[in-house]
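Full entry
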Amino acid sequence: MHFSSFSAFFEMGGYAFYVWTSFAVTLLSIVLLFVEQKWRKNHIQQVAKKEKKRLERIKKAKDKARQS
């Protein structure tokens, strides 16, 4: 599809509202998915660090109990 001017491109042959709304919704969805993915990754890393520290404490306690 060829447009005669830049404003004609933005008007999209009278379907501008639908075209640009769908574009905005799609872009917003992609951004939200990216943000959620980052949040989940950080959350999983925090949980893993806490679990690792807990396991280290348990191991130290068992070693200390064996030495006594």
The chain has one domain: 6-67. Helices lie at 6-11, 16-67. The chain has a mean pLDDT of 93.
